Amino acid sequence: MVEGFERVSAENVTIEGRTLTVGRLIHAPAEDIFALLADPNQQVEADGMDMVRGPVAGTEPVTKVGDVFTMNMYAEKMGGEYQMDNHVTRFEADRAIGWMPARPGSEPHGVQWTWVLEPESDDSTYVSLVYDWDAVTNEKMLAGKFPPFPVDAYLESLHALADAVEDADDWDGEDDALDALDD
């Protein structure tokens, strides 16, 4: 479990110091979720902020701390299209993956994105998305707004991830269950 993050409902939000954590239960195995998150070619499916356009051509899945993958991005406040190098800082297969973004050719500025996966059963996983700006030292950046997006945008990333990995076939029995209630 993410330290200092108490699970009290299906969806949680905490802000402690310079760390925002959002979490929810996703009905998919941790290995399926991790496979999507570790593959930059699939990460657009977990983008609730509609900024990620996809990786540069030839990008391979992440395999270890120290890997760097470059993503094509879009945001009006960033001047439209741009790219970010993502420096992998945490890699625990099927458990956690994290990176620090930076402009190509630059060092990360101290913001870290981390996904933490806690298997609840063979087919469900509690997923936390952690946005941490504790290592930011640039005074100009710190004078800006943190977190830079509304909390709902981080939650939307969790919902997008769930939509991408949850198997709709697992819910085939739902109609039968609803029919039984009508009887």
What does this structure look like?
- Helix content is 20%, strand content 36%.
- The chain has 4 helices and 8 strands; from the N terminus they run E-E-H-E-E-E-E-E-E-H-H-H.
- It has an 8-stranded antiparallel sheet with strand order 1-2-8-7-6-5-4-3, with helices on one face.
- Strand 5 and strand 6 form a beta hairpin.
- The longest helix has 15 residues, at 151-165.
- The chain has helices at residues 30-37, 139-142, 151-165, 174-182; strands spanning 11-16, 19-26, 52-55, 68-75, 80-92, 96-102, 112-121, 124-132.
- It is α+β, with helices and mostly antiparallel strands.
- The chain is globular, with a radius of gyration of 18 Å.
